[in-house]
Amino acid sequence: MKGFAESISDTCQGDTIYSERGSRLEVQCDITVEFIAVFWFRGTDVDNGQLILRNDHHLKTVMLEGYNITDEGAMVINELQIEHEGPYWVRYLDNGANSHDRTISIHVKGNAVQEPRPVGMLVKGYKADSVDRQDIKFLKIGSELSLKCPNGELGEWGILYPNGKYDWLWRKYPEYEGGSCSDADICEVEEDGTLIVNTVTYRDEGHYMCFSRTGQFDMVMEYPVKVHGESTNRYQ
């Protein structure tokens, strides 16, 4: 069976690709054999990566929103954002079922790294009387993330991403309740203050922090979260 291509561009030899935020990025890899299938992963290898794209005998499958794959097996990111940064790994299978692996990293330009901002910083009279730092949580892609926070009169959940960006996930103050959890429907906060992410992906990795105030007592909880991939031995 004829493969998708015999030779395409000279990237994917451990390169770092720099591209502007909001741009369309198409990545083709140097592969000089005919291949019948290609698999793109977020991560560094097949055991610790998230399968995002596949083109198997010209049947294309997109596993993660925001990505696409061409007939020639190139990865397409429709609108590049900061969450697309990081390592990628691609495997080609030739007619003899031999694998040919390539790696790249993507760096997004046009994103000023923000200074870390602790939760509760904008609350009048903020003072962290107690900071409870938890051990690192290791989660598989697709699992549920559940983090406890004391239920107080005021509350806030935030995440510091590995690239230094801070995001308000949820806030409960007399004048405001909301955040990116409710805006994007990516997570939820239960009545007792527990943060829930139903289906974890690589973009959920980071340093989670919650702030709670009861009376004159302020408390901060910190949860480092690492995400790793499911084993996909059938592609090896």
Give a structural overview.
The strands form four sheets. Strands 10, 11, 13, 14, 15, 18 and 19 form a seven-stranded mixed beta sheet that branches. The protein has a six-stranded mixed beta sheet with strand order 1-9-8-3-4-5, with no helix packed on it. Strands 2-7-6 form a three-stranded antiparallel beta sheet, with no helix packed on it. It has one helix and 19 strands. Residues 1-10 and 231-236 have low confidence and may be disordered. It is mainly β. It has one helix at residues 180-184; strands at residues 13-20, 25-27, 35-42, 50-56, 59-62, 67-69, 75-77, 86-94, 99-109, 130-133, 137-140, 145-147, 154-160, 166-173, 176-178, 188-189, 195-197, 206-214, 217-228. Strand 16 and strand 17 (195-197) form a beta hairpin. The chain is elongated, with a radius of gyration of 21 Å. It folds into two domains: 13-110, Sandwich (Immunoglobulin-like); 130-228, Immunoglobulins (Immunoglobulin-like, Sandwich). InterPro entries: Ig-like_dom, Ig-like_dom_sf, Ig_sub. This is Ig-like domain-containing protein. Residues 142-210 form the Ig-like domain.
The CATH topology of the largest domain corresponds to Immunoglobulin-like
Q: Describe the global form.
A: elongated
How much is the radius of gyration in Å?
Answer: 21 Å
Tell me what the CATH architecture of the largest domain is.
Answer: Sandwich
Task: Detail the poorly predicted runs.
Answer: 1-10, 231-236
Our count of domains comes out at 2
The named CATH superfamily of the largest domain: Immunoglobulins
Largest sheet: 7 strands, mixed
SSE class? mainly beta
